[in-house]
Design goal:
single chain; alpha+beta; PH-domain like; 2 domains; three-stranded antiparallel sheet; 3 helices; DUF3093 domain-containing protein; transmembrane; membrane
Length: about 140
Amino acid sequence: MVALGPALCLVVLVAEAVLGSGVHWLGLALSAVLLAGLVSLQVLAARRHASVLLTPTVLRDGAETLDVAEIAEVLPEADPYAEDLEPWESAPSLGELSGIPRRRTAIGLRLRDGSTVRAWARDGDGLRTELEGLVAGDDAEDGER
C-alpha cells in the first residue's frame, strides 16, 4: 500500500520521459515522498486503532485493554430484524474510537461491575466463541474456589 503512490509517480516520470515533454523531477519526488508518508500514517493508525488481540487473560480492542477476568457475561447476538436495539448495541465500544470500526462486528459484554461495553472484531463469530469459552472457564474456576 505504501509503495503505490511512489510507484504511480514513477509511472508519470517514465511517461514524461517517453513523451519528451520535460520531466518534473522535483514535483514527482516531493509527491512520492508525501504520498508514502501519508499512507504510512494511515497504515500505522489502522494497526493501532483497529487491531484485536485476545489471550487467555487479556482482550485488546484497538488501544484499550480489558482483563478477561472483568467480563461477567458475553451477551447474546442482536437480531438484525428486530425493531428495537438490544441495550448493549448502544453501549460504549472498546478502544479509543467513537464507534465500531468499519467491517467489524460488535459483541456485547457485561462486565463484573455491571456496566456494558461492545467489543469488536472482523471475525465476530470467532471472537464470540473464544470469549464465551474464556468466560465460562473463569466461572468454572470461581466455583472451584
